C-alpha cells in the first residue's frame, strides 16, 4: 500500500523545519548567564547560546566553591540587549543579582534601580558594578560605580 502525504501537511512540515533551522543557525549573538553560590561565588559567562553560557558559568561556580550543588542560575538569556550586575546589601544579608536582555544601557541601569527599590524597607544599599552589551565585543563590558541607598527612594 502506498501512502501519500497531503500538500498542506507537507507544506506545514517544511515551514516548521525551516523555522527551527533558522533559529538554530542564526542565534541572536552570544548568550549570557550568571550563576551564584550564596556568600561564596558569582560567575558569569558568554557563549554561543544561553545554554552554553550557563554551562560555562555553572562549571566556574562549581570550581570556585567545590560543589555544583551550591550554585544557582540567576539569569540566562540568548543575546541581544544589555546585562547588568548589582550587589545588594539588606539589613541582615548581602547578595549579587543580575539581569539580561534590556534594550539599552540606560534601561539596564533603570531595571536594576527598580529592583533595588523593590528590596525596601530592608535594603541598605545597592551598587551596580557592571553593564555588559550582549551584542558585540565581550571586552566592551563597562565597570560602573553607581549606587543607591534608602535615601535615594524617599519621597
How does this structure look, described?
The chain is of the alpha+beta class. The chain is built from three helices and seven strands; from the N terminus they run αββαβββαββ. It has helices at residues 7-25, 50-65, 105-118, and strands spanning 31-37, 41-47, 72-77, 82-90, 94-102, 123-133, 142-149. The chain has a four-stranded antiparallel beta sheet, covered by helices on one side. A three-stranded antiparallel beta sheet has the order 2-1-3, with helices on one face. The protein is flat and about 45 Å long. The chain starts with 6 loop residues before the first helix and ends in a 6-residue tail after the last strand. Mean pLDDT is 80; it is low at 1-28.
Could you give a quick summary of the protein structure above?
By secondary structure, the protein is α+β, with helices and mostly antiparallel strands. The chain has helices at residues 7-25, 50-65, 105-118, and strands at 31-37, 41-47, 72-77, 82-90, 94-102, 123-133, 142-149.
How many strands, which pairing sense, and closed or not: the largest β-sheet? 4 strands, antiparallel
Number of helices: 3
Structural class: alpha+beta
Helix percentage range:
25-40%
- Percent strand equals 35-45%
- Which spans have pLDDT < 50 for at least 5 consecutive residues? 1-28
The ordered H/E elements are HEEHEEEHEE
Please give the order of strands in the largest beta sheet. 5-4-6-7
Name the overall outline: flat
Average pLDDT taken over every residue: 80
How many E strands? 7
State Rg. 20 Å
Distance between the termini: 79 Å
Amino acid at each position: 500500500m502506498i501512502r501519500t502525504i497531503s500538500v498542506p501537511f507537507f507544506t506545514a512540515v517544511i515551514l516548521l523545519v525551516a523555522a527551527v533551522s533558522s533559529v538554530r543557525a542564526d542565534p541572536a549573538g552570544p548568550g549570557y548567564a550568571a550563576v551564584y553560590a550564596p556568600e561564596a561565588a558569582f560567575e558569569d559567562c558568554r557563549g554561543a547560546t544561553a545554554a552554553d553560557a550557563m554551562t560555562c558559568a555553572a562549571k566556574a561556580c562549581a570550581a570556585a566553591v567545590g560543589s555544583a550543588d551550591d550554585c544557582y542560575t540567576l539569569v540566562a538569556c540568548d543575546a541581544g540587549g544589555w546585562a547588568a550586575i548589582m550587589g545588594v546589601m539588606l539589613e541582615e544579608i548581602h547578595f549579587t543579582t543580575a539581569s539580561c536582555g534590556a534594550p539599552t544601557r540606560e534601561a539596564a541601569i533603570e531595571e536594576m534601580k527598580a529592583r533595588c527599590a523593590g528590596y525596601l524597607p530592608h535594603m541598605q544599599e545597592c551598587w551596580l558594578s557592571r553593564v555588559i552589551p550582549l551584542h558585540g565585543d565581550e571586552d566592551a563590558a563597562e565597570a560602573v560605580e553607581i549606587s543607591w541607598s534608602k535615601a535615594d527612594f524617599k519621597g
